Amino acid sequence: MSAQTSTSTAPATTSSMHAGLIWFDGHVVPEAEAQVSVLTHALHYGTSVFEGIRAYETERGAAVFRLGEHSQRLLDSAKILGMHPSWSVDEIDRAILDTIRANERRSCYIRPLMWYGAESLGVNPGRNRLHLMVATLPWGIYLGDEAVRKGAALMTSSWRRSAGDIMPTKAKAGGNYVNSVLANAEARESGFDEALLLDKEGYVAEGSGENIFFLKGGTLYALAHSVNLRGITRDTVITLARDMGTPVESTMATRDELYVADEVFMVGTAAEVTPIASIDRRPIGTGVAGPYGLAMREHYLDVVGGRRSEYHHWLTFVND
Ligand code: PPE
To answer: The pTM is what?
Structure first.
């Protein structure tokens, strides 16, 4: 079999998958056996919903961060697409934990995916069965070690974030991600680390796979939801910042407000907390990863790694 391979030099470390055992419609099977038909509805029309979750190594073994909230968001995405899944939050949680245990992962990125199968083509998915799989992957630093250490270089994308009356932007739906793929590719091909997408009014929406924060005059600003994904890391960082005594506000912002912020950083399950050094070649602050963003990154990694017991309610210990 010959497959066309991507020429992208993205540092995301999924180039060879190493997914091992995959939970596929209730059975745990080797990756090579977890196959679908080329007539799969989701492959033709993007009719899938997915999640991105991380499990971290802790003193008590692997722990999944905010598991139930991710499983609930998967079901919310399915509801938005009009899907009628038979799996409950608890069943999805269990499938995820079973997959981590089957692979004996100490830490991993977790990708649950729900999609319409191959019973019929045509946009109406009425007759297509829903499938569910859970894969666990070794996945390191999303934008690469250097982007985190030095701060990432962002480029305002020529692609606008889809409007909420064009695509269901609150759903993590496969089809929505063509928008992210195009923006990310444009940024990388232009020599930047990541894209910054504006909404159709010109306000900053989010990165291709991250929510955005900026710090100005001692206040932390979280970009308002508008068309952004309701990020679980965004919610985590707001909570951590408030607990650290930082005032936090939710706001709309134009790109020029970000240019003159003291610091900007991006957050997401994959990206964790990634400081931004420049936007459109303008240095943010002093043009290096800022101290608040770096401190928040360290704090976040302590919390997800189980080193802060006051946040253990966010962790599901895999071996308990
Ligand atoms: N916005 C978008 C568009 C997005 O895809 C993500 C997650 C976020 C914000 C942050 O959401 P949360 O993970 O709940 O804090 N992006 C996932 C997919 C990345 C990928 O390349 O695939 C992720 O971080 O898992």
So the answer is: 0.94
**Ligand 1 proximal residues by C-beta, below 6 Å:** 52, 180, 206, 209-211, 229, 231-234, 268-271
Which residue has its alpha carbon closest to ligand 1 atom 25?
52
Instruction: Determine the pLDDT at residue 16.
Output: 60
- Helix axes 291-304 and 232-243, enclosed angle (nearest 10): 110
Of 236, 233, 245, which is closest to residue 292 (Cα–Cα)?
A: 245
Q: Are 93 and 68 spatial neighbours (Cβ–Cβ below 8 Å)?
A: yes
Q: How far is the CA of 104 from the centre of ligand 1 (A)?
A: 25
Specify the pLDDT at position 17: 77
Ligand 1 atom 19 nearest Cα: 209
Tokens of 67: 């598991």
Which parts of the chain register pLDDT below 50? 1-15
Residue linked to tokens 């596929």? 24
Give catalytic residues, as residue numbers. 172
For ligand 1, the distance from its centroid to the CA atom of residue 21, given in whole angstroms, is 23
Strands 211-216 and 204-207: unpaired
Ligand 1, residue 52: give the atom nearest the CA.
Answer: 25
Pairing of strands 152-156, 272-279: parallel
Q: Please give the pLDDT value at position 1.
A: 37
DSSP one-letter string for 110-145: EEEEEEE-SS--SS--TTPPEEEEEEEE----TT-H
Contact at 8 Å (CB) between 238 and 197?
A: no
Segment 168-221, tens digit of pLDDT:
999 999 999 999 999 999 999 999 999 999 999 999 999 999 999 999 999 999
- Where on the phi/psi map is residue 26: left (φ > 0), alpha (ψ -120 to 50), or beta? left
Question: How far is Cα 197 from Cα 48, in angstroms, rounded to an integer?
Answer: 23
Tokens of 185: 């590719």
One-letter amino acid for residue 266 of the chain: M
